[in-house]
Write a structure and sequence with these properties.
about 100 residues, mainly alpha, Arc Repressor Mutant, subunit A, two-stranded antiparallel ribbon, 4 helices, 4 strands, DNA-binding
DNA sequence: CTGCTGACGGTTC
DNA sequence: GGAACCGCCAGCA
């Protein structure tokens, strides 16, 4: 496994999200050093999400909604609820559970 | 090498 | 308030 620096930075940023919190794509990208890299975060999660042992379920879009649909969405919701993340609505996490990088 | 795609976000109209 | 674009760039065909 040899990734580009960008991928490594993004992976690192994703791993910083603590248990019981969620984070948006944009924030992860910013934390990794790419202010406009949301789409790259998408790529990383999509292609390496399950392979790299990432807390992929802690990443949602800025509105706090699950960006996946169908099967993946269900699994993500289950995993988050298991961590104590609250939902204000089906498929939408409580804004208070958002983690903000320093 | 070229073009298309993607679990998004911000701006504009 | 919401739809429509544009930017961003690593992978893969």
């Amino acid at each position: 496994m040899s990734y580009t620096q960008m991928t490594i930075n993004i992976l690192g940023a994703i791993r910083e999200v603590p248990y019981g919190f969620v984070c948006s794509y944009g924030e992860v990208a910013r934390a990794a050093g790419y202010p406009n890299g949301a789409r790259q975060v998408v790529r990383v999660l999509s292609s390496l999400g399950s392979k790299e042992n990432l807390p992929w379920h802690r990443i949602v879009n800025k509105k706090g909604e699950i960006a996946l649909s169908g099967d993946g969405e269900f699994e993500q919701i289950v995993r988050l609820e298991l961590e104590g993340v609250k939902f204000v609505k089906e498929g939408k996490v409580d804004p208070n559970c958002f983690y903000h990088y320093k």
